[in-house]
Design a protein that fits this description.
By secondary structure, the protein is mostly beta strands. The chain is 8% helix and 38% strand. The chain has two domains: 7-67 and 126-149, Chitinase A, domain 3; 72-120, Thrombin, subunit H, CATH 2.40.10.330. A hairpin with a 5-residue loop joins strand 1 (7-16) and strand 2 (22-25). Bound molecules: zinc ion.
């Protein structure tokens, strides 16, 4: 069966950056998504359309088709007093914060100074060239429920 809209695709993937460093891979062998529902980044979804079970695909995804370009306006100084326990903050710590339009963001601490910290609201993979190595394990028709929900359900049925 070929990958297209309203198909549930199970795949193995390994994601590396341009230097071949491992960024992510599918846990316990596989990952399933609903094609055509923006469950995965557009650059990968487009490259998988029309592929079939057993195909091995390598896909290079530029930031604009992945997690977007880095935006320096997403760097913000935050007073240390805003953190419950300022002494626990470390570079690399991540926090949930509210973005300019009220959306939830994950921000990463990138710098610590005496009175404030600098947090970065960019997605950790913003501006990164992504290299996927994908093996397509299974392609099946989505159920009516999956299409209604806009995502794939696991083999045991509904699990969110
Ligand atoms: Zn659901």
């Amino acid at each position: 069966m070929q990958i297209g809209d309203q198909k549930v695709v199970t795949l193995h993937y390994i994601l590396t950056d341009s230097e071949g460093r491992l960024i992510d891979k599918s846990d316990d062998g596989s990952f399933a998504y609903l094609h055509g529902a923006s469950n995965i980044i557009p650059g990968l979804e487009d490259a998988l359309a029309g592929r079939s079970t057993g195909d091995e695909v390598t896909v290079a995804v530029a930031p604009e088709d992945g997690y977007g370009a880095r935006n320096d306006a997403m760097l913000q100084q935050v007073p240390k007093s805003m953190f419950e326990d300022g002494s626990q903050i470390a570079v690399g710590s991540q926090f949930h914060a509210q973005g300019p339009n009220g959306e939830m963001l994950v921000v990463t601490v990138v710098e610590i100074e005496d009175e404030h910290v600098v947090v970065d609201g960019n997605h950790p993979l913003a501006g990164v060239d992504l290299h996927f190595s994908v093996t397509i394990v299974d392609v099946r028709d989505a159920s009516a429920e999956e299409i209604e929900h806009g995502h794939a359900h696991g083999p045991e049925g509904h699990h969110h």
